Design the sequence.
């Protein structure tokens, strides 16, 4: 199985997980999330993550998304995955957002993990746009 694992500071990862449940189907076993909450030690966070990753088997693959490249949640998650000797079947991406995670969840079973990651990053960049609202009045004045 391919797992999408979301990690973050605060409640970003669980919130993104909740949004994915709404859009990709609730109760999916292939989405896991863990957050480093304010005041939580890295050892407690690492243990929480270990518990969430217990379902991941040695033959599985992981697409790990973190909120910040180099942030504690992502580096700790990478260390926990290394403890499981699963870095070779893990792709790690920092800077997650909803379009990126949704595409990963919906497309992961139809592609190789490396191919998926190579497609996801440019697609996620493309989704970042300014939303501009124009009023009809301003168009009439021109």
Sequence:
């Amino acid at each position: 199985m391919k797992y999408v694992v979301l990690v973050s500071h605060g409640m970003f990862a669980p919130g993104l997980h909740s949004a994915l449940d709404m859009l990709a189907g609730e109760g999916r076993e292939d989405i896991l999330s863990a957050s480093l909450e304010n005041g939580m030690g890295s050892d407690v966070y690492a243990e929480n993550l270990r518990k969430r990753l217990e379902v991941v088997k040695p033959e599985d693959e992981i697409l790990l998304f973190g909120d910040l490249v180099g942030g504690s949640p992502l580096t700790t998650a990478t260390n926990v995955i290394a403890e499981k000797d699963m870095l070779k079947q893990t792709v790690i991406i920092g800077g997650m957002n909803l379009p990126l995670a949704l595409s990963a969840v919906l497309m992961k079973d139809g592609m190789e993990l490396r191919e998926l990651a190579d497609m996801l990053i440019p697609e996620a960049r493309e989704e970042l746009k300014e939303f501009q609202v124009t009023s009809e009045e301003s168009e009439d004045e021109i």
User: Anything to note?
Assistant: The mean pLDDT is 92.
